[in-house]
Amino acid sequence: MAYRIAICDDSQADTEFVRQLVNVWAAQRQAEVQTACFSSGEQFLFRYAQDKDWDILLLDIEMGTMDGVTMAKRVRRDNEAVQIVFITGYSDYIAEGYEVAALHYLMKPVSRDKLFIVLDRAIEKRKQQERCLNLEAYGELVRIPFYEIRYLDVRQNYVTVHGKGDYTVKRSLGEFEKELDQRFCRVGRGMIVNLTFIQRVTKTEVHLSDGTVLPLPRGAYEPLNQAIIQHT
Fold first, then answer.
1. What's the pLDDT tens digit per position in 112-135?
2. Which of 70, 95, 94, 72 is CA-nearest to residue 84?
3. Mean pLDDT of all residues in the chain?
4. CB of 153 within 8 A of CB of 191?
């Protein structure tokens, strides 16, 4: 599988430097990559309108008319899977990256070792995103990517999987727990939550990043917080 990486920077010298580092990383990891370089956010978005299949975006923040954060927000509207890495000469922008779930910030001049570590993390996350939950629901086979699943809850003998849509099947929560990976945490007897969607936890509630508020069973606060810490 070839990983597709876009490098977007209005400095041709910086773009070429990062591209060469990406090629060295790919050779060392024996990974197949396809890189494409763009000199502005507008140029990338023009290409993105016809071709949304990208794995990693390496984005300069300070560009001409459209900065990298604005460009990333446009991409995030319909693409939750792409890994976004900002490259900047200033630390002032870091807080803005939370809005687009940026994987990391790299300061200029880009360190080879730090870039390699970030690319390793990005590829590992993409591999995780390829995993799917297979369901027999409504008379058809449904494949739901793990990264889309916000939580699962149980009512009597039925479990509902809450992703971009809701799917209810007659199975036990324990069966799902065995199929899911380390990003999911069992919360009490009736719920499994995707830790990556949790925004904050109180003694009585779990708040997800999409605005969903889930009741937190008694005794689940400490174990859930420990799971979040270990997953971070």
1. 999 999 999 999 888 877 788 989
2. 72
3. 90
4. yes
159-169 confidence digits (pLDDT tens): 999 998 999 99
| DSSP letters for the chain | -EEEEEEE-S-HHHHHHHHHHHHHHHHHHT-EEEEEEESSHHHHHHHHTT----SEEEEESS-SSS-HHHHHHHHHTT-SSSEEEEEES-STTGGGGGGGT-SEEEESSPPHHHHHHHHHHHHHHHHHHT-EEEEEETTEEEEEEGGG--EEEEETTEEEEESSSEEEES--HHHHHHHS-TTEEEETTTEEEEGGGEEEE-SSEEEETTS-EEEPPTT-HHHHHHHHHHH-
Single-letter code of the amino acid located at 157: N
